[in-house]
Write a structure and sequence with these properties.
Strand order of the largest sheet: 3-2-1-4-5-6-7-8
Number of helices: 10
CATH class of the largest domain: Alpha Beta
Order of helices and strands: EHEHEEHEEEHEHHHHHH
CATH architecture of the largest domain: 3-Layer(aba) Sandwich
Radius of gyration: 22 Å
Shape: elongated
CATH superfamily of the largest domain: NAD(P)-binding Rossmann-like Domain
Number of strands: 8
Mean pLDDT: 96
Largest sheet: 8 strands, mixed
Helix content: 40-55%
């Protein structure tokens, strides 16, 4: 399919790179941010535009959720397939008479971080079997993990991702605030973080749980509460420990 990617942010950049690595041609990248579009264009030798949308068979919208509906109106062609990359929007958010789909890569994307695209799961939804087959074939060129998914299922996939990624990263950021306050290099905690994530490759996360809450060690819990002078840190500590205790019925 002749393909255009709409967007210039992290997801658009990485999809362009994934397509480039697998020699999947992209006819154009399109969007508002000329500087970022130029970066993608120069790096992957793809034409770009901020004004004129190229004719294509497949338009892949990789923008922020609140911009998907608006940018989808730029596609006035009817005989084409249009997909967005959102985990939390239905394909019906796309505003046009074209065929609609979703093409959701389950990963956290930052331009500076190199990724192994073959390990990224893709969740595909389309209005008909032919379009699903085309998108499945496309995603399979990039990754070995491609799955059909309804919007109802995809909502829960995205919700799980928020718990497993966004919340966990926020805890890393809060942990760094504590280590910084005591002038302890956060890098010293990286082996612990790596072991924690490595462990759940072979163990159910529930079985991998350690720490004072799962041991019901009230002395340590009280000590930590006394040390936490920042109200947000204390609130998080108490909520997390209460959740752990409930999970293990302590």
């Amino acid at each position: 399919m002749k393909t255009v990617i709409l967007g210039s942010g992290n997801v658009a950049f990485h999809l362009a790179q994934a397509f480039h690595e697998k020699n999947i041609p992209i006819a154009q990248v399109f969007g508002r941010n000329a500087k970022e579009l130029k970066e993608i264009s120069e790096k992957f030798k793809i034409p770009f535009s901020t004004s004129t949308l190229a004719d294509a068979d497949f338009y892949l919208i990789a923008v922020k959720d609140d911009a998907v509906a608006e940018i989808s109106t730029k596609i006035i062609k009817n005989d084409c397939l249009v997909a967005h990359t959102s985990g939390s929007l239905p394909k019906e958010i796309l505003s046009g008479n074209y065929r609609k789909a979703s093409f959701y890569p389950l990963q956290t994307f930052s331009k500076a971080k190199v990724l192994n695209y073959s390990e990224i799961p893709f969740f595909i939804e389309a209005e008909n079997e032919a379009d699903y087959g085309e998108l499945h074939k496309l995603a399979s060129l990039i990754s070995g993990k491609v799955m059909q998914s309804t919007f109802e299922k995809r909502k829960y996939i995205h919700l799980t991702a928020v718990f497993a990624c966004n919340f966990v990263n926020h805890l890393f950021a809060r942990a760094k605030e504590i280590s910084d306050s005591q002038e302890i290099p956060f890098s010293y905690f990286l082996p612990l973080i790596r072991e924690t994530t490595d462990k759940i490759e072979t163990l159910d996360p529930k079985l991998a749980q350690t720490g004072p809450a799962v041991r019901n060690d009230n002395r340590v819990l009280k000590l930590h509460q006394m040390l936490l002078t920042e109200s947000e840190h204390l609130k998080i500590y108490e909520v997390m420990n209460e959740s752990i205790k409930k999970m293990y019925e302590l």
